[in-house]
Specification:
Layout (H helix, E strand, L loop, with lengths): L3 E5 L20 E2 L2 E2 H11 L4 E6 L4 H6 L4 H7 L9 H9 L1 E6 L6 H7 L1 H4 L4 E4 L3 E4 L5 H12 L2 E7 L9 E9 L2 E9 L10 E9 L2 H7 L11 H11 L2 E5 L3 E4 L3 H16 L2
């Protein structure tokens, strides 16, 4: 039922400067794959094959990555290294990619709104590539698609964090209605621990119904002067229903150096141990 996945990828990645001066943070590799490839593979596992990417200046390598490299393929053809391209070749054969540019960085809500022309009037998923999710069984987006099939409303993925960490996230308050599923009553963007309604923090996985675009068109700048998806979702709560889903699996904040190094070590151990 969810056919498209939106990847906001226009941010500057300032926490990884100077590496991200010319390299998009979404192209930073965890072992031998860039972060965005992990996200695309998670979407594919959920049965989604239309990828919509919101880019910005200096992000051309994202488009080049999801394209055929005739020279490289020619050089590797018939060698022992040809197999190294099989995963990306499978992605290119299975998926379509569309792109639009976010001219100004005005927050995640604005980035999602920028993707409206790529999505149209249908429900869609959103993946933030620097939140790398890992599950030995079913991926986070696959889990969320099952929740969407049952409730047919917007869903945010949440996880419990320490109260000292809530100021980094959007935070929800809600009533449990199913296993790990909450009806959202309130949500606040980057609250202090005194303001936080809970310790359930929103991470970079969403399923959104298309009315979110109309709401975003009328959402005024909020925290840090940016258009926050949290504010738009709160308005959606008032009009209908938004769910929070406490997903199964691990999440690594690869937008931070600590999280990036932790994910690299864990994925290296998994690769080494088969």
């Amino acid at each position: 039922m969810i056919k498209k996945c939106l990847f906001p990828a226009a941010g500057y990645g300032t926490r990884f400067l100077p590496a991200t001066k010319t390299t998009p943070k979404e192209m930073l590799p965890i072992i031998n794959k860039p972060l965005i490839q992990y996200g695309v593979e998670e979407a594919m596992a959920a049965g989604i094959f239309n990828m919509a990417i919101v880019t910005g200046r200096g992000k051309r390598s994202l488009e080049d990555f999801f394209d055929i490299s005739y020279e490289l393929e020619h050089q590797l053809r018939g060698t022992s290294k040809e197999n190294l391209l099989k995963d990306i070749r499978h992605i290119l054969e299975s998926c379509t990619f569309s792109y639009t540019r976010q001219m100004e960085m005005k927050g995640l809500g604005h980035a999602i709104l920028t993707g409206e022309s790529l999505i149209g009037n249908e429900p869609f998923a959103v993946i933030l590539s620097d939140d790398l999710c890992d599950n030995e069984g079913e991926g986070v987006l696959s889990q969320m698609c099952k929740i969407y099939a049952k409730y047919r409303c917007s869903i945010v993925a949440v996880e419990e964090v320490e109260l000292e960490e809530v100021s980094k996230y959007g935070v929800i308050a809600g009533r449990k209605i199913d296993e790990d599923v909450f009806v959202v009553d309130d949500m606040i963007e980057k609250p202090s621990k005194e303001e936080a309604p809970s310790n359930l923090a929103i991470i970079g996985r969403y399923i959104l119904t298309p009315d979110i675009f109309e709401i975003l068109h009328h959402t005024k700048p909020g925290k840090n002067g940016e258009i926050q998806i949290t504010d738009a979702l709160l308005e959606q709560c008032k009009r209908g229903m938004v769910l929070g889903y406490k997903f199964k699996g691990a999440r690594y904040d690869c937008g931070s150096v600590d999280g990036f190094v932790k994910a690299t070590n864990i994925f290296y151990d998994k690769l080494k141990n088969g």
